[in-house]
Amino acid sequence: MSEKKGILERLNGGEMVIGDGGFVFALEKRGYVKAGPWTPEASVEHPEAVLQLHREFCRAGADIAQAFTFYASEDKLENRGNEAGKIGCTSVNQASCDLAKQVSKEFGCLWLGGVCQTPTYLSEGSKEKVQEEFRKQTKVFVENKADFLLAEYFEHVEEAVWAVEVLKETGLPVAASLCIGPDGDVHGVPTGECAVRLVKAGADIVGINCHFDPFVCLQAVKKMKEGLNAAGLKAHLMVQPLGYHTPDCGRQGFIDLPEFPFALEPRILTRWDMHKYAREAYDLGVRYIGGCCGFEPYHIRAISQELAKERGRECIGAEKHEEWGTSLRYHTKPWVRARAGREYWEKLEPATGRPYSKSLAHPDNWKVTRGHELLQQHIEPTSEKEQTDVKSFRKG
Length: 396
Hints:
Radius of gyration: 21 Å
Shape: globular
Mean pLDDT: 94
Order of helices and strands: HEHHHEHHEHHEHEHEHEHEHHHHH
């Protein structure tokens, strides 16, 4: 059996890869992740649930099994009294690696280990302290022979650069994606400049993930591409956006929306939106296309089906899901049969189903970032005084 091609070998050869979807949101809805901390101790407590979701994404066409290590740094697991700290960084990351490796063998896909932003950085921790948190995780990924590494979900490019520097120490290929939009990072660094800094730090693949919908994220990726071209730098592009529409969001994305995180369902993208997203991403030159929070397996399947010709294959999960709903021809009701095909679904403007629902929200836009008193992190549970202070700040 020939050895599978690595991520850079695939991208350098012009191939495209499809990432998986959002684990913390999907597993929170299923009852395995606690909203608020959003940490991945489910890999230890309920490995069967995490493994099943991995399998569903791979059946849907994902070429990558991303180990469920989101927010699994030691400081995040114990932040504000989170009991996941009792399990510990090493145990959570090891369990997540075991599951990703298992599904990688089952489906022949690549798997990665990832790090993301830390409470230590938000509390104005030094570069040395922040990078120490990254090294604790990275050690486990190296020991388990991950195919490549990812620094994702960073709203400050400075911290992302620190993460890339640590990941590059391993000698493995490194991808880096920021949870920012076209307006730049939270400190105001332009999006194009962010890409330049990441590539200069050693990232082989750069892009955007989370916080914004696919079409806003693609605007940001375009600016990254322009920034790299202007600087004479080369890197592969990736995008893994939200599965929610966010045209009304500001610099901090969907976490500012009053619907975050428990009332986002009316904003969910349809599978037909995903066809459009996949085509626009591909035409932009992005060759690593996936999803983040809100992305379910059927969303990834839609991407796989849209780009089946370019990939030279269909995904397993397409066996019972004919493209553009043509299977509706078998329906007993004639008005439903009339909906079989691309023309109907591509032109449809879905309704929310809520009487007189507002089309857009008024984001909170608190404009607090690293160093602000409200962002100081600690291992003790959030106190009643802190909650009072937060609510008072909001009223002010």
